């Protein structure tokens, strides 16, 4: 396949989740028959933050010499980052080829990861990315520093990977009747990605009026064919009962809408999406 339209994009950075990102991306690309691209972004800004002015109280000649050394050091760092990125992409390419991808694409870009993804968005079918990168990979209570910005900036499905790859057999669709939830419902009903899977359609609400909505949604999935549907209404704190349900029913992946409320609402009450990202032990496929 030589087109780059509607591709599966895997963002890798050499963190412990990069292999799982590659594996999930390869699985999706094969299931939906889409090209796969591997992306590594080199962000220079963190290193630049260290280059404060330390030359103010030394002589002109010494200052010029020091600036030359700093420039050479930055050039060496840039070459090293470039080489490391190429090695990461080559290893990732070999991994997805072993998983059955015939001709994976690779792309190394300089600058902000968020900006790179926005530029690539029109070609995306789905983005696969790790829950946390190298900066936070040893902090299980943290999510990636750029992850929320990425989710808010893109309007394509994003699979956030937080564990080793396991071929999904059971998914959970968190449904609340919202526009984002209906979009997720349509995607599950129509995409070849979910055929042959068991879908737990779960609604968390004290409102009994949600029951008819849940029944309509379940019927839509059943009419689509190829999906076994289990509908369930739960009561409680959404992020807690959904994560508990994941564990109790061995859910392999959760599908849900992302950031359906306003920034002000999130600031006052905390974002449900962020809470799910922080508490879930299984990958989350987010839609906006």
Can you give me a brief rundown of this structure?
This protein has 288 residues and is of the alpha/beta class. Helices cover 44% and strands 20% of the residues. It folds into 2 domains: 7-45 and 81-161, Rossmann fold, CATH 3.40.50; 170-287, Rossmann fold (3-Layer(aba) Sandwich), CATH 3.40.50.
Q: If you had to describe this structure to a student in words, what would you say it looks like?
A:
This is Universal stress protein UspA. Belongs to the universal stress protein A family. Residues 8-161, 169-288 form the UspA domain. By secondary structure, this protein is α/β, with parallel strands linked by helices. It has two domains: 7-45 and 81-161, Rossmann fold; 170-287, HUPs (Rossmann fold), CATH 3.40.50. Helices cover 44% and strands 20% of the residues. It contains ten helices and ten strands. The chain has helices at residues 18-32, 45-48, 60-98, 113-120, 147-153, 179-190, 210-224, 238-248, 263-269, 272-279, and strands at 7-11, 36-42, 105-110, 124-130, 158-161, 170-174, 198-204, 228-234, 253-257, 284-287. Strands 3-2-1-4-5-10-9-6-7-8 form a ten-stranded mixed β-sheet, sandwiched between helices. Strand 7 (198-204), helix 7 and strand 8 (228-234) form a beta-alpha-beta unit. Helix 6 packs parallel to helix 7 (210-224).
């Amino acid at each position: 396949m030589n087109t780059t339209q509607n591709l599966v994009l895997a963002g890798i950075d050499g963190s412990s989740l990069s292999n799982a990102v590659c594996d999930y991306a390869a699985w999706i690309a094969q299931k939906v028959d889409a090209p796969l691209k591997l992306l590594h972004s080199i962000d220079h800004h963190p290193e630049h933050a260290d280059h404060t002015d330390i030359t103010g109280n030394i002589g002109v000649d010494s200052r010029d010499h020091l600036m030359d050394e700093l420039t050479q050091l930055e050039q060496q760092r840039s070459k090293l980052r470039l080489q490391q990125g190429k090695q990461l992409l080559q290893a990732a390419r070999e991994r997805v080829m072993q998983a059955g991808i015939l001709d994976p694409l690779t792309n190394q870009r300089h600058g902000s990861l968020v900006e790179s993804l926005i530029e690539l968005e029109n070609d995306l079918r789905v983005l696969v990315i790790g829950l946390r990168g190298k900066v936070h990979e040893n902090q299980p209570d943290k999510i990636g520093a750029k992850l929320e910005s990425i989710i808010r900036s893109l309007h394509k499905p994003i699979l956030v990977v937080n564990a080793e790859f396991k071929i999904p057999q059971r998914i959970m669709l968190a449904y609340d009747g919202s526009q984002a939830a209906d979009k997720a419902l349509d995607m599950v009903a129509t995409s070849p990605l979910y055929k042959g899977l068991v879908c737990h359609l779960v609604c968390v609400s004290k409102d009994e009026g949600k029951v008819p909505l849940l029944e309509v949604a379940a019927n839509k999935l059943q009419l689509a064919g190829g999906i076994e549907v289990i509908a369930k209404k739960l009561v409680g704190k959404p992020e807690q009962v959904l994560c508990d349900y994941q564990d109790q029913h061995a859910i392999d992946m959760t599908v849900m809408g992302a950031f359906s409320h306003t920034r002000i609402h999130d600031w006052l009450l905390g974002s449900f999406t962020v809470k799910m990202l922080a508490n879930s032990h299984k990958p989350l496929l987010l839609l906006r």
